[in-house]
Design goal:
Largest sheet: none
Number of domains: 2
Radius of gyration: 20 Å
Number of helices: 5
Helix content: 55-70%
Distance between the termini: 52 Å
Order of helices and strands: HHHHH
Number of strands: 0
Length: about 90
Amino acid sequence: MYDEYIMQRTQIYLTEEQGRLLKSRSQMTGCTVSELIRAAIDGVYAPRSALSTRDRVRLARRTAGAWKDFPETGAEYVERMRGSRRLSQMAERQ
C-alpha cells in the first residue's frame, strides 16, 4: 500500500467530534483514518491536475454507477434544474 509513496509522519490534534466523524467514515468506507485525512487534504489543497493517473482511475471506479438508480437522464435533470425552455431555445438558435 505505501510502497509507491514516500510518507511523512505527522501528528495532529482533533476535536472529539472530528475524531468520531473520521472513525465513523472509516468504518463506513473501509478506508483508514489516515487515507481519509490524505484524501481531504488532496481535495482541498491539491490542484486537480496534480492527481495521478492511478488516483483518477481509483476515483472513477469509486464513483462509477453512482447515478444508476436516478429516475431521470442527465439531460432531463439539467432541463428540470435550468428551466423547461432553456435547452429548446439553445437548439432553436443553432
